[in-house]
Amino acid sequence: MAVNLKGRSFLTLMDFTPTEIRYLLDLAQDLKEHKRTGTIHQVLKGKTIVLLFEKTSTRTRCAFEVAAMEEGAGVTFLDSGSSQMGKKESLEDTAKVLGRFYDGIEYRGYDQKAVEDLAKFSGVPVWNGLTDVDHPTQILADLMTIEEHVAKPLNKVKVVFSGDIRNNMSYAWMYGCAKMGMHYVAYGPEELASEIKQDVLEKVHAVAEETGARIEISSDPECLKGADVIYADVWASMGEEAEIPERVRLLTPFRVTKELMASTGNPDCLFMHCLPSFHDFETKMAKTAMENGYDIREVTDEVFRSRHSKVFEEAENRLHTIKAVLVATIG
Ligand code: CP
Ligand code: NVA
User: Fold this and answer.
1) Which residues contact 267 (CB under 8 A, 6 or more apart)?
2) 168 with 244, same domain?
3) Are residues 156 and 120 in the same domain?
4) Longest CA span, the chain
5) 9 C-alpha vs ligand 2 centroid, how far in Å?
């Protein structure tokens, strides 16, 4: 049966079947090709979308804006300082207003319930641009990048996430890998493993039973063996900056180094990262933390700049995959 995602929200990959995710990945590849060959079809002409950001962003915001603009749609950007939402107006009322103006709403913020409520009350498709527990558009870009650089079908690919295994990216990976029948290992300290939400694990294990995926949690470096991808993210996510001292203590052994990459035993293992990344001291945060005695780099500059690293290919694919989500749901 043909896949039809018109009118659907994109809140989490858990709401999509493997076939629907496959459809989005194939569509993203087509749209990437259209851009490369100068044959963009402008299928969103006459549409308008609004982007709500309660946390900062470079890639997600720009990918939504460029994707919409290239396909002919108009875009409004609102950050937390420039709308009434949450301060003078409830999320429900805001959703009801925006749903009458726009064809779709992107939201980045804290609670997953916020994207769910926006979808419930606006009556238009809502796209999750990152919450505390998920980042589904990032995973689409990551899967696309893996397909471009690993000569294996996704259900033969092993991804090891090294670091803060209880953050939004780690959960998003669990969902993506469960759906696509992949092997996912959350590699991090036991202290953080014990914080992983049990309901998430139950959900992903249930999906994994149907798809043949393997979802594991480990603090044993043996789990690195045979990885096709080592994935990293910052050790303290947006809003968690106070955790830096404790995270540095817990996560320093999980920093992605040349040695960690070598212990996969795979000379072609990829290094991937959603970005932004602390890989040197060229940022205010990394520099200030270091002055206070905390080395917050989750990956060495050597690995980040090595031939293994596909981080900028991945960043580019945010555009093509977000465009696919827009085209599929409101095109
Ligand atoms: N990867 C990602 O979501 O990047 P931004 O925070 O810049 O949007
Ligand atoms: N875990 C990170 C991801 C950024 C794209 C954060 O939430 O800050």
Assistant:
1) none
2) yes
3) no
4) 58
5) 21
| Total H helices, total E strands in the chain | 13, 9
Q: Check pLDDT > 80 for residue 1.
A: no
And the tokens for 260? 């960690």
CA 62 to centroid of ligand 1, rounded, Å = 9
Task: Summarize pLDDT for 277-301 with one digit per residue, the tens.
Answer: 999 999 999 999 999 999 999 999 9
**Catalytic residue status for 36:** no
State the Cα–Cα distance between residues 155 and 18, nearest whole angstrom: 11
Question: Pocket of ligand 2, candidates 133, 167, 244: which has the most ligand atoms within 8 Å of its Cβ, to mutate?
Answer: 167
CB 277 within 8 A of CB 234: yes
How far apart CA 152 and CA 166 sit, in angstroms, is 28
pLDDT at 204: 98
Residue 321 Cβ contacting ligand 1 at under 6 Å: no
Are 300 and 323 contained in the same domain? no
Integer Cα distance of 129 and 1 in angstroms: 29
b/e map 173-210, b = 16+ CB within 10 Å: bbbbbbbbbbbbbbbbbeebeeebeeebeebbeebbee
Nearest CA, atom 6, ligand 1: 57
Its pTM surpasses 0.90: yes
Name the residue range of residue 324's domain. Answer: 13-134+317-330
Angle, helices 311-330 vs 18-37, to 10°: value is 110
Q: Ligand 1: distance of its center to the CA of 48 in Å? A: 22
- 144 lies in a domain? no
**Are residues 127 and 188 both part of a single domain?**
no
318 is catalytic: yes
Cβ 57 under 6 angstroms from ligand 1: yes
pLDDT tens per residue across span 39-95: 999 999 999 999 999 999 999 999 999 999 999 999 999 998 888 988 899 999 999
Which of 8, 233, 255, 297 is the catalytic position? 233
Residue 82 confidence (pLDDT): 87
Catalytic annotation present for 135: yes
Q: Output the domain CATH number for residue 288.
A: 3.40.50.1370
Q: For position 80, what pLDDT does the model report?
A: 85
